[in-house]
Write a structure and sequence with these properties.
Blueprint: H1 3-55, H2 63-72, E1 78-82, E2 87-91, H3 101-114, E3 118-122, E4 133-138, H4 142-209, H5 215-235, E5 243-246, H6 247-259, E6 266-271, E7 278-281, H7 283-299, E8 305-314, E9 317-324, H8 352-363, E10 367-374, E11 378-385
Parallel strand pairs: 6-8
Antiparallel strand pairs: 1-2, 1-4, 3-4, 5-7, 8-9, 9-11, 10-11
């Protein structure tokens, strides 16, 4: 199984486990909250009976047990109102600083009644008038409120833990990809070294035996090109040396190289500023970026077209735009085109743009992106260098 498939599987398992845990936590918390709420209602009913006994007490009533029940409530907020909504008593309600106590308690009682947390009690067995009716308004205890909030706090902690796990897996995935990049690049450079050395030796032999052969200079150019490619691959994975250089001749060299190796129905031109554009750059790697962008543009124009490289100075530094008249890229793929393995071609690894992004952003602290694209009309890639 590929690492990408394993990564997706692990992520899926983690998300499913987190969702199951969250759902179970919510269900258990809901059941506990419901049971505690019912228990508090029963306590309020007992407290209300004790309060009725206290209000209706005479000289023959034993108040010890009644007072013990009334005073045992230290958590549930309660307000006792008469038939005219006047406050008779209250417990476990602390007014905010700077507010009138009676007004605050009356507001709390109103909210309790609106939420359905109120009991009506008649003090006389015969029913009596309004004066014989009291209302016991009650709210949720601090414990019940904390228990109601707890699952959301738990979900927040679980979500944070999940994010940390996913972030760690993503970092591990990137590190794994980087190791693959580095290993593949260095192995390629190593494998190219032996045939390049052999070709250089044969070139010297041919120069001695056929010094006037017109094909030998072209052979030397190809050997030099192979050396450049091996140098590029050897730099992947290590911090490349950057030197201040004018981008204009660098872009022109890349254009000249690609112009000799593209079909005749594709034209490549460069438009550069009249003044130097110095940038800290590693020339072999940056030329590689330009070549990759041009190759992708050529692949996008099987029927022919034009590629224009525009180099200009902007407020943030230097801007290089590579514009083609090819197939274009759907907007939903603007960011995906830089991911390793993304390709619209039947054949290809989908590594060119990913490599270009790595070189520009990791090694040169620049920024590469799809500036604009329209399906059927063309695409413009932009590289910003400070």
């Amino acid at each position: 199984m590929l690492w990408t498939d394993r990564y997706r599987t692990i992520n899926t398992v983690i998300v499913i486990a987190a969702l199951i845990t969250a759902a179970a936590s919510l269900v258990v918390s809901h059941l506990l909250t419901r049971d505690l709420a019912r228990e508090e209602v029963r306590k309020v009913e007992v407290w209300a009976e004790a309060m009725r006994s206290l209000i209706a007490a005479d000289e023959n009533t034993d108040l010890n047990l009644v007072l013990k029940v009334v005073n045992s409530n230290t958590t549930i907020p309660i307000v006792v109102l008469d038939g005219q909504n006047e406050i008779l008593a209250s417990r476990n309600i602390k007014p905010s600083l700077g507010t009138d106590s009676l007004t605050f308690i009356r507001e709390q009682a109103r909210e309790m009644r609106q939420s359905g947390h109120a009991m009506q009690m008649n003090l006389s067995q015969a029913g009596g008038g309004e004066a014989d009716t009291i209302y016991i308004c009650y709210g949720e205890s601090s414990l019940l409120k904390r228990l109601a909030v707890y699952p959301y706090v738990q979900l927040g902690v679980a979500a944070l833990f999940l994010l940390l796990v996913v972030f760690a897996l993503s970092a591990f995935k990137r590190a794994e990809q980087n190791r693959v990049w580095v290993g593949l690049s260095r192995e390629t450079a190593h494998q190219l070294g032996t045939p390049i050395s052999s070709l250089m030796a044969w070139s010297e032999v041919l120069k001695e035996s056929h010094p006037d052969d017109p094909l030998l200079p072209e052979m030397d150019k190809d050997i030099g090109r192979l050396q450049l490619i091996a140098e590029r691959f050897s730099k992947i994975g290590s911090e490349p040396e950057l030197h201040v250089a004018d981008l204009r001749p660098l872009v022109q060299r890349a254009v000249d190289y690609m112009a000799r190796r593209t079909p005749h129905n594709v034209t490549i031109t460069a438009r550069t500023a009249a003044h130097p554009l110095p940038v800290r750059v590693n020339e072999p790697l940056f030329e590689w970026v330009i070549e990759n962008l041009c190759k992708n543009a050529v692949d996008a124009m099987p029927q022919g077209g034009s590629i224009t490289l525009t180099l200009s100075a902007v407020s943030t530094g230097t801007l290089l735009e590579v514009t083609d008249t090819g197939k274009g890229i759907p907007k939903k793929h603007f960011k995906s085109v830089f991911k390793p393995g993304f390709t619209t071609k039947k054949r290809g690894w989908g590594l060119g743009l990913s490599l270009a992004k790595r070189i520009v952003e990791k090694y040169h602290n620049g920024h590469i992106y799809v500036k604009s694209s329209e399906v059927g009309k063309g695409t413009t890639f932009a590289i910003e260098m400070s």
